[in-house]
């Protein structure tokens, strides 16, 4: 991974300020904000699938939105091929929009109910002038074939499709403009298990055939493990650990990753435990704990964790973890 | 499963349960002849995809189905048929002998009453305790479900509780009548994975401590593997396979179970195709003839299209060689072929 990353986040901060209520003003309480991303550093390499995993409020969806520039960071930068995407205007902005595409979580809310599949794909193809007018029908047929929808789907409306088929339409729409980077935010979490597997298989196949770079955002560890070359684990707006999938899952170097893996219900009934993997509740992103955000739930926390925020530092050959316990999970 | 019904206290035997909803388009059969057995203190997982009828089955056991839904069959609770009880008798079973926990921790609690008041309501209905006794018992219950500082939390409103704590409070309310059976409908689906893990461990601990049985409805096979003794897999309103968890996961005997297990990514199979199931589950009004799974099934033959296979006993299988694995049943004409196929996806030939 010595080549320059396709996309990198440099200390990205995103805050969502809360409106001050009358009571806040009377009590002279300071303005509060949800800290969605607290200085995230992350690289995406060409041709890889990076899995982004974490529990609710960890900032994974905010990160996905910052990557496709659906929102701008309050601080830090997102660079695409070295260029700060916040500075892109006009043709450069349109070029970026074409090369970075997103597929959304909700198969029911993310397609216009009045547009046929043909209209959806036609719009994507013509806005970005992907094909001469005459070639568009042929390209639509190709796209439907690519996502394995029957050719007669083109003239149907979204309500005539199942959830899994709608996600295929969303993928076809994203791929219509031949992007380099596909951002998939909880692509299959609204689908039944048997249908999830179909869409996951499709994504694996497309990623390999088209050489796509994929940012796969999900809360399901099993899925992320299955699909990703590398995985980043987030907690309350920070990346806690990032590394090659195999290394991260077999020997996590952060106590939170360990807890997350142990909490995920294993399909093997023989690996049953009696004690919960993590104690306590998820803190609110309105009040992220000082120091290491995980210290309130961490069984290994000591004084330094409560005051000093650990930085993401190298662990093992290709990983990084943000933990003061450098030796955590290290091979003995 | 069509054997003699267990009539011991705390045992549940369901026979021929059918729940039908009248609709303008004709009757819709959500539950289509379900047989279930639960020994006292046993945890049974009822697993299936959306529309499989698992939740309606659970609700039908306590007749929690509103018109135009109609329930038929037998639900034998310690030998008594719950479907034949008069309303007053049924009320004494609900909450006191059999309690329920539903999926939505955000909406199942009344937002304008304190948690303590809602626990108190349950205690008043199901116990003979006086006000002081109920308060003390309320503190005990919150403590039992693992809520810290229970005495002060009784005065909190639901919005002051996190999702996980609300689900704990729901369980506390359910436990107020000291039930012998807990019906839990997707109790952890809305929760984060670390909180889900805590709630499942809590249910296991409570079972061990109170000796109550649990029927756990879920779509997550991992949840079943981690918390149930036995599992019943539902598809299109019927139970297609049932058996002890370890045996069923090691060697599924119904093509649908096999596909479902294969659809879940497992360690060691990274970036390989999953053993997915083609198509989507059928709607209530469009149930295929014969075996309802046949249009999606790679093993299907003419027999499957013609006639629905009955849920029948199958041999324990090779995973149980030398061990007892009783109670394995599958409704599949090709259960032997399914067992032989295993649960690994075929590796595609190089092009």
UniProtKB/TrEMBL annotation, chain A:
Instruction: Please name the NCBIfam families in this protein's record.
Output: oligo_HPY (TIGR01727)
**GO terms of molecular function:** ATP binding; ATP hydrolysis activity
Q: In its keyword annotation, does this UniProt entry include Nucleotide-binding?
A: yes
Q: What is the protein's given name?
A: ATP-binding cassette domain-containing protein
Q: Which InterPro entries match?
A: AAA+_ATPase, ABC_transp_ATP-bind, ABC_transporter-like_ATP-bd, ABC_transporter-like_CS, Oligopep_ABC_C, P-loop_NTPase
Q: Family membership, please give it.
A: Belongs to the ABC transporter superfamily.
Asked if the record carries the keyword Nucleotide-binding, the reply is yes
Tell me which SUPFAM superfamilies the record gives: P-loop containing nucleoside triphosphate hydrolases (SSF52540)
Q: Which Gene3D superfamilies match?
A: P-loop containing nucleotide triphosphate hydrolases (3.40.50.300)
Domain ABC transporter as annotated: residue spans: 7-261
A single GO BP term for this record reads: transmembrane transport
Q: Which domain of life is it from?
A: Bacteria
Its topology with respect to the membrane? Peripheral membrane protein
- Record key words, sorted: ATP-binding, Nucleotide-binding, Transport
Automatic annotation (TrEMBL), chain B:
Q: Where in the cell is it found?
A: Cell inner membrane
Which molecular-function annotations from GO does this UniProt entry contain? ATP binding; ATP hydrolysis activity
Q: Name one GO cellular component term.
A: plasma membrane
- Which ranges carry the ABC transporter domain? 14-261
Which keywords belong to this entry? ATP-binding, Cell membrane, Membrane, Nucleotide-binding, Transport
Family label: Belongs to the ABC transporter superfamily.
Question: Any idea what this protein is called?
Answer: ABC transporter ATP-binding protein
Species name for this entry?
Lichenibacterium ramalinae
